[in-house]
Design brief:
Distance between the termini: 9 Å
Number of helices: 9
Number of strands: 13
Helix content: 25-40%
Shape: globular
Radius of gyration: 18 Å
Strand order of the largest sheet: 5-4-1-8-9-10-11-12-13
Strand content: 15-25%
């Protein structure tokens, strides 16, 4: 097992604006919410934070605006031991924001306004990766320009790192990036969109990823790990028979925001430490399940990591 594996996350930083309410409003309707939390988010930052809390050495490559949201986000990442030298401050831009509604069942609806995230450049990615040094794992998502995602995955491959792509939010034009990832980690909605592109609309049964997962893996030649909400996760790898189902523990859901990001960060940390893929996926399911019982995105991560990281270090 590597000691303090190095994970590089190339992705987004957002300010999360989360409102809890009994139900979401209809068109033209105003409702009174139960509570509100301004927190740290962005899929890239979330994944970096969970990996760091789980004990990895993490370098973040991102863009923030020249506003208080941006400076606060950098301070938060730094306070967790994450290397932020690859985070660029763009004075002419605003930091990305993510308004989030969480209903009475703990289910979320999220709108992202990328802001500075959309202004990342490939030369920034190159410079940040050069400065960060060799990585064990490189993680990307799709909340930054696709050219930057491509460059990060290509550079990760060149370094011999394990490359992970969380194709969220899913974009049809990102289909050609899939071949650059060793692991593709979508949720079930993103998986359905991916399957429609690769297999055709008539070949996919919505909500049943296990049926089409082996064909997707055979087509891509990459490992695929689908997060499946309360059902846990589905794992399928090239050259292996069938789909491995990883059940999730039964938990009370308060807020599912960020659970998928917690999953990716924990999975990457376990893989980078040398854990077998199935063990890494099981750890990620447990991690994500713990976060949904608490409000907030990154605010819910610390307790989950504190419970799981010691066991991961001993494995």
């Amino acid at each position: 097992m590597n000691e303090r594996p190095h994970i590089v996350v190339v992705g987004s930083v957002m300010a999360d604006m989360t409102a809890w309410l009994d139900r979401v409003p209809e068109a033209g309707e105003t409702l009174v919410g139960r509570s509100f939390l301004l927190g740290f988010g962005g899929k890239g930052a979330n994944q970096a934070v969970m990996a760091a809390l789980m004990g990895a050495r993490v370098s973040m490559v991102a863009c923030v605006g020249g506003d208080s949201f941006g400076s606060d986000a950098i301070a938060n990442l730094s306070s967790l031991g994450i290397d932020t030298h690859g985070v660029s401050v763009l004075s002419e831009a605003a930091t990305g924001v993510a308004p989030i509604w969480v209903d009475g069942n703990g289910q979320n609806r999220i709108v992202i306004v990328p802001g500075a995230n959309s202004l990342m450049r490939t030369d920034q990615v190159d410079a940040a990766l050069d400065a960060a040094g060799a990585a064990d794992v490189v993680i990307c998502q799709l909340e930054i320009p696709l050219a930057c995602v491509r460059r990060a995955l290509e550079r990760g491959r060149e370094q011999g790192a394990v490359t992970i792509l969380n194709p969220a939010p899913f974009l049809d034009e990102a289909g050609d990036l899939l071949a650059l990832a060793d692991w593709i980690v979508p949720n079930e909605i993103e998986f359905d969109a991916l399957a429609h592109i690769l297999l055709g609309a008539d070949a996919v049964a919505p909500g049943s990823p296990a049926e089409s997962l082996p064909r997707i893996v055979a087509t891509l030649g990459a490992s695929v790990l689908v997060t499946h909400g309360e059902h846990g996760a589905l794992l399928c790898r090239p050259g292996e028979d069938g789909v491995q189902k990883i059940p999730a523990p039964s938990v009370s859901v308060v807020d599912s925001s960020g659970a998928g990001d917690a999953f990716v960060g924990a999975f990457a940390r376990a893989l980078a430490s040398g854990a077998p893929p199935l063990d890494a996926a099981q750890a990620a399911v447990r991690c994500a399940s713990l976060t949904v019982g608490l409000p907030g995105t990154q605010a819910s991560f610390a307790q989950s990591a504190a419970r799981l990281a010691p066991a991961l270090d001993e494995s």
